[in-house]
Every structure is written in C-alpha cells, then in structure tokens.
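User: Can you recover a sequence for this backbone? Please restate the input before giving your answer.

Assistant: Of course. Working from this structure:
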C-alpha cells in the first residue's frame, strides 16, 4: 500500500511519521518551495504531546518545549494580577506535562523525523482523480503521482476539501487579528515559567515560555477583515492599539524587533462531517480549521494522525474501511473543539459585552479551578484520554 500525503505541515508530517512507523509506504508533497512555518509558536497540551510520544518523538519535543508552571491573568490597564495559580493539577490530572513550542522548531523536528529527503517541495496539486484502482494527483508542472490513498493535510485553505465535499466552503472571519512572535525571555515582563495574559477592552496580550530562553507572545484585537498592514509596521500598530496598557505590555512591545511579528486574521470553518470521499481523506486544518482560542488546533491534527495511521495499519487489506472508521471516530470530537474555540473567542473579544465583563469579574476571583477544568475539558476525548 502506498499513500500520498499532500502538505508537509504538522498534520502532514505527523501522519507520514505514523504511517512510516507502521511500515506503510508514504510519499509527501508540499506546494511551497521551502519550509516557512506560519505563526511563531504553538501550544501543545497533553493530548498533543501524548500523540507525539506515540509517534516516537516525545524526547525531541520535550527538548523544544518551554517550562510552563504557572498560569496568570492580569488587568490590561493597571497590570494588577487578577489570578495566578500552578498548572501542576493539569499536568498531573492528564498524566503529561504540556509544552509551548516554537513552530519552526517543531516543524523542523518533524521533517527531520520523516526525512526531509522524502518531501517533494514545490509540488502544487491542481487536480485529483480516482477510480477502483487508485488515486492520481496532477501537479502544476504537469507531472502526476498515483497511490492507493491520498491524505490531504493541505491546511485551512485546502484545495482538496472541495474534491471531498463536492463543493467549495467559505471560512468565517472571527472578527479579530492575532499578532504573534518571539522575543527574549525577560522577568521584567513576567515570570519565565509563567503563561501570563493581560485582558481588557475586548483584547488580549499574552506570553508563554519556549525553549532557548524565549517568550512566545501574542496580541489579539478586534479589526475589520482585509486590513493591509505592512510587516514592518505591525509594531507601530501594536503601539497604537495597546500603547496605553500596563508597563509590562509596553516592555514586551519594545522588545519586538520590527519586521519579525506575524499579523494573522483569524478565520475558522463551520464543522464539517464529511472528511472522506473514496480514496481521499482530509486531515488537520483541511478538515477542521479552528480559531486558536483554546490552543487545540495543532493537537487536533495530531490526534487525527494517530487515529488514522493506526486504523490504516489495522486494516491494510481494506484501507477504504479504515478511512470510513477514521471519519466516524474523529468528526464529532473535532467539531466540538471548533465550536468551543469559537465560543471562547466570542467571550474574549466582546461579541456580548456583558459576557466579556462577567468573564473579567470571574478572573478576579478565580482560584484556578474553573480555568483548569476548562483546559482539561478540551484535552479529554482524544485517543489517549
């Protein structure tokens, strides 16, 4: 059995790694000509880490992860701490420490694990045909590849999704823009083992530790879609929007090297429950593009990879049955996470002002129980729950 994987991001490399570990032949194609990860870092909660452990790269990802021992919220304007509590109950309750990881580091590690030489870059799929004997992908240069199955891990703007569904679907704008990047860790901003989030005015600013004595940061603010802000002007935009926030936030903005921050409008996809058409299956953002508000987008892709690779290994004589079982096993779980993230986004970004103000008040009396219950609630339900 030969499987063609389209996309060499986290989903594509992780499913390829799972298939390789089961002795299944894999060909990986990627339309970009070189690895250029989108976003500075990624939250890998314990469900995602357990998947990476299963795929055999647990030690490598642990070395890349930042030590995140505490979670705290602070008032955006005064800087006053609203709540601060240890994350040990989450780690202990789920049986696995979580790690924020620089995305470029994670991507490089996964590519090395599957073998960079096994990835064909600059291969843009322009057509897919299938019959009883296999599936054929045609590339922009006119070349073709035929395999028994095609797994589309080609991201939120997936071209393959329309082939599976039989029609195009439009993503929905969540109403806010996320600015993210990496800066040197600085205890004057927050504790170097803290995940700290400043909240107010329907906006957020947060930092998390990652390996290499760095902070992963992000800013969320409500904006119309389609704003054209040059990369070198992103820090100026942050100063205009967040310039009156508390001193630690100003220190963070001052630490950002102009031209290095990523500015990303946040869109998601209404849950879809058709992930498979014949010999073609969707995986990761192609199947369940989600807002980052609960930190489960990458973890969900890793869950897909573990489930699908295991099913294909168990049903080598009937791979189409494996795809059917994969769809049945994963669509409800993924849809739940998409809707949870959408709901959290609405609260944090002021869709209902009263609900947002109530959340701020709750944070001021939070002892960690409610927040950690929410985190654990997102984690459970995966293949290793």
């Amino acid at each position: 059995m030969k499987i063609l994987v389209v996309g060499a991001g986290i989903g594509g490399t992780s499913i390829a790694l799972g298939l390789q570990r089961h002795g299944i032949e894999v060909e990986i194609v990627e339309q970009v000509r070189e690895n250029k990860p989108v976003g500075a870092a990624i939250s890998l909660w314990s469900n995602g880490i357990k998947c990476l452990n299963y795929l055999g790269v647990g030690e490598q990802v642990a070395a890349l992860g930042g030590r995140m021992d505490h979670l705290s919220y602070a008032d955006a304007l005064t800087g006053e701490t609203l709540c601060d509590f240890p994350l040990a109950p989450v780690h202990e309750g789920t049986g696995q420490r979580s790690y924020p990881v620089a995305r470029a580091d994670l991507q490089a590690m996964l590519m090395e694990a599957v073998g960079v030489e096994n990835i064909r870059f600059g291969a843009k799929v322009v057509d897919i045909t299938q019959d009883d004997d296999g599936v054929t992908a045609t590339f922009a240069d006119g070349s073709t590849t035929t395999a028994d199955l095609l797994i589309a891990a080609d991201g939120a703007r997936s071209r393959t999704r329309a082939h599976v569904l039989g029609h195009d679907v439009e993503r929905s704008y969540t109403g806010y823009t996320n600015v993210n990047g990496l800066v040197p860790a600085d205890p004057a901003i927050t504790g170097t083992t803290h995940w700290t989030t400043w909240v107010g005015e329907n906006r957020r600013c947060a930092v998390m530790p990652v390996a290499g004595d760095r902070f992963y940061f992000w800013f969320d603010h409500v904006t119309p879609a389609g704003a054209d802000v040059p990369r070198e002007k992103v820090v100026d935009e942050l100063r205009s929007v967040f310039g009156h926030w508390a001193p630690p936030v100003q220190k963070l903005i001052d630490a950002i090297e102009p031209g290095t921050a990523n500015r990303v409008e946040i869109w998601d996809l209404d849950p879809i429950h058709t992930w498979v058409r014949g010999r073609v299956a969707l995986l990761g953002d192609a199947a369940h593009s989600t807002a980052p508000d609960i930190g489960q987008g990458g973890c969900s892709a890793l869950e897909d990879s573990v489930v699908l690779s295991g099913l294909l290994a168990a049903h080598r004589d009937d791979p189409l049955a494996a795809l059917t079982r994969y769809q049945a096993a994963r669509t409800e779980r993924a849809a739940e996470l998409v809707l949870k993230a959408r709901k959290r986004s609405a609260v944090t970004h002021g869709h209902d002002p009263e609900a947002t103000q109530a959340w701020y008040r709750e944070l001021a009396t939070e002892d960690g129980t409610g927040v950690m219950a929410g985190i654990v609630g997102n984690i459970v339900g995966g293949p290793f729950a």
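That completes the design. The CA atoms of residues 220 and 337 lie 20 Å apart.
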